[in-house]
Amino acid sequence: MLRTFCFAVGIFIAMWGATFLMVDQMTFAWKVDPTIERDPSFRGFYVTLNESRQRVFNPPQWLAFCLMSVGTVTMLYSVALPKKQG
Description:
Number of helices: 2
Helix content: 40-55%
Number of strands: 3
Oligomer: single chain
Radius of gyration: 18 Å
Strand content: 15-25%
Number of domains: 1
Order of helices and strands: HEEEH
Distance between the termini: 14 Å
């Protein structure tokens, strides 16, 4: 069960990395309340607002490669786990 879970998590992370490799920016459908100020901390670092007050996420190029490598290492780890005895 642990092997399958680790493999599935690795595939999920690697697929997100491949998605970020093909996408330049993502615009979220909901609008931001203009009375709330934008959080300048790390959480809001790559998120900007467009003209219609929607959030736009610009993933950096290194994020795609980082997620794909972490997903691949996780999948390799799941293959290397010992099989259940009995």
